[in-house]
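Quick review question:
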C-alpha cells in the first residue's frame, strides 16, 4: 500500500502541504478513468453497484436494507471535498463521491442515498442516535471521538493550516497569532488545537466555514483555521481574495464515521479502501488535483 507523504501544492497552494489517503473498490467491475467533469455528483461509471451483498452482524447495514436507502452525513461548504451547488442543489467533491462509492459497495446506487448536512459539533450524536448510517466529511479520527463512535480509514491525511486575506503578510504561521482573531467551526479539532496550543488574541466560532469566510472577507477576523485540504478549495475558488499562510502544523487523519461497535461495517469499508487504488485515483484527479493538490494513499488501518 502506498505511503502518505506531504507535498507542496501548485501556485494557488504554494505554501500549503497536503497528503491524501486512498480508497479502493471491493465492488465488482471497478475501473479508473474519471473524465475530469467538474462538480457533478455522479462518478458511477467508475464502479458497479454490488449485488448479493451480505454483511452478517452489521445492524447498520440491516437498517439500510430495511429502509431501502442509505443516510449519509456530509458537509456542503467545502469545495473539492463536500460541496452543494446553491443553484442546482447538486452535491459533489471527493468526500461525497467516496460516500457514493461506499454505498455502491453495499448495493445502493446514488439515487438511494439521502444526504444530511451535519454541523461538526453534531456528528457523533447523529451517529449515536442512528440518524445517519455513516459520515464522510473531513472527519478527523481522534481518541475522544472513538469513545462514542468508530472510524473506518483513514482515507485522507492532511494537516491544519491558516487562511488569511491575500494581501496580509503579517501571519506566516500559528506563532504569529498574538493579537489576531481566528475563526473556525464549533466542535472542530482545529478550533480546539488553536485554543490549546497557540495564543491567538481571540477566537470566534460558527457552524460552517462559509460563515468564517464571510467574516474574513469583511475584515472582522484575521484568519480562518482548518485543514489544508479544505483551505486549498477556498483559495482555488477565490485566489485573489484568500491565501494560505505558512505550512501545516498538525496531522489530521480523515475517517468514515460509523456507529460504535459495528465492526462488520467498518471492516467492509476498510477492505473497500485497501483492495485497490484506481477508483480513488480517478476521484482524486477529478476533485482535488485541479486545485494543485497531489497525494498518495495510505493504508486504512482503523
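Suggested answer, residue by residue:
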Amino acid at each position: 500500500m502506498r505511503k502518505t507523504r506531504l507535498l507542496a501544492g501548485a501556485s494557488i497552494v504554494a505554501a500549503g502541504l497536503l497528503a491524501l489517503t486512498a480508497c479502493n473498490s471491493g465492488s465488482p467491475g471497478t475501473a479508473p478513468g474519471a473524465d475530469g467533469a467538474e462538480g457533478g455528483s455522479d462518478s458511477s461509471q467508475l464502479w458497479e453497484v454490488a449485488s448479493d451483498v451480505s454483511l452478517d452482524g452489521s445492524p447498520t447495514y440491516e437498517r439500510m436494507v430495511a429502509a431501502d436507502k442509505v443516510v449519509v452525513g456530509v458537509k456542503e461548504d467545502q469545495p473539492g471535498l463536500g460541496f452543494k451547488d446553491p443553484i442546482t442543489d447538486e452535491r459533489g467533491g471527493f468526500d461525497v463521491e467516496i460516500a457514493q462509492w461506499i454505498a455502491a459497495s453495499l448495493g445502493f446506487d446514488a439515487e438511494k442515498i439521502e444526504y444530511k448536512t451535519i454541523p461538526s459539533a453534531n456528528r457523533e450524536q447523529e451517529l449515536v442516535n442512528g440518524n445517519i448510517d455513516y459520515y464522510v466529511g473531513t472527519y478527523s479520527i481522534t481518541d475522544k471521538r472513538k469513545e462514542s463512535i468508530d472510524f473506518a480509514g483513514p482515507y485522507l491525511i492532511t494537516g491544519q493550516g491558516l487562511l488569511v486575506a491575500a494581501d496580509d503578510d503579517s501571519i506566516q504561521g500559528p506563532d504569529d497569532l498574538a493579537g489576531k482573531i481566528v475563526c473556525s467551526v464549533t466542535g472542530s479539532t482545529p478550533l480546539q488545537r488553536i485554543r490549546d496550543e497557540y495564543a491567538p488574541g481571540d477566537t470566534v466560532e460558527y457552524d460552517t466555514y462559509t460563515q468564517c469566510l464571510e467574516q474574513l472577507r469583511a475584515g472582522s477576523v484575521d484568519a480562518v483555521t482548518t485543514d489544508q485540504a479544505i483551505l486549498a478549495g477556498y483559495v482555488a475558488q477565490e485566489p485573489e481574495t484568500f491565501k494560505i499562510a505558512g505550512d501545516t502544523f498538525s496531522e489530521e487523519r480523515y475517517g468514515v464515521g460509523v456507529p460504535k461497535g459495528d465492526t462488520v461495517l467498518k471492516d467492509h469499508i476498510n477492505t473497500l479502501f485497501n483492495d485497490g487504488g484506481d477508483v480513488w485515483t480517478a476521484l482524486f484527479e477529478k476533485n482535488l488535483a485541479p486545485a494543485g493538490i497531489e497525494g498518495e494513499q495510505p493504508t486504512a488501518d482503523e
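Why it works: The first strand starts at residue 7 and ends at 8. The first helix runs from residue 59 to 67.
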